[in-house]
């Protein structure tokens, strides 16, 4: 049975970590500290893996389901969504390190701080 927004809002803080399952590998992990994290459980290469999809209420149920569906499409294409996320993050860092702002800042540090006043 699929989760509803009412069930999620009414969920109390558990004494130990608890999971409320939705469908197709999506679940909400409730922590004793009060946190609610969306997770997607999937199998890739004969291993069970989990992917974080955000926190509730910042990521509502409908958006969590969209993110789950996107991840399922990647798994169907034989792409590990967790590894893809890591690669995208590294590419983003590399692009920002090669931006004009970064290079200009480095130039200013080396050329203006070495001048004698």
Offer a quick outline of the entry.
By secondary structure, the chain is of the alpha+beta class.
| Shape assignment | elongated
The end-to-end distance, rounded to whole angstroms, is: 72 Å
**Computed Rg:** 21 Å
Give the topology string: H per helix, E per strand. Answer: HEEEEHHH
Low-confidence residue ranges: none
How many individual helices?
4
Oligomer: single chain
**Helix residue percentage:** 40-55%
Structural class: alpha+beta
Mean pLDDT: 89
The number of E-state strands comes to: 4
Name the strands of the widest sheet in spatial order. Answer: 1-2-3-4
| SS strand fraction | 15-25%
Major sheet attributes: 4 strands, antiparallel
How would you describe the overall organization of this protein?
The chain has 117 residues and is an alpha+beta fold. It is built from four helices and four strands. The chain has a four-stranded antiparallel sheet with strand order 1-2-3-4, covered by helices on one side. It is elongated and about 65 Å long. The model has no long low-confidence stretch (mean pLDDT 89).
Itemize the secondary structure elements and their pairings:
Blueprint: H1 5-10, E1 18-21, E2 26-30, E3 36-44, E4 47-55, H2 61-76, H3 81-97, H4 100-112
Antiparallel strand pairs: 1-2, 2-3, 3-4
List its salient traits.
single chain; 117 residues; alpha+beta; 4-stranded antiparallel sheet; 4 strands; 44% helix
């Amino acid at each position: 049975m699929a989760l509803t927004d009412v069930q999620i809002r009414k969920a109390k803080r558990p004494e130990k970590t608890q999971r409320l399952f939705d469908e197709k590998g999506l679940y909400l992990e409730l922590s004793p500290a009060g946190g609610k994290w969306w997770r997607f459980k999937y199998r890739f290469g004969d291993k069970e893996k989990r992917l974080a999809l955000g926190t509730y209420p910042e990521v509502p149920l409908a958006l969590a389901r969209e993110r789950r569906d996107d991840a399922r499409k990647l798994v169907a294409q034989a792409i590990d969504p967790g590894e893809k996320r890591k690669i995208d993050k590294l590419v983003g860092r590399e692009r920002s390190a090669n931006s004009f702002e970064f290079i200009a800042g480095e130039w200013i540090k080396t050329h203006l701080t070495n001048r004698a006043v």
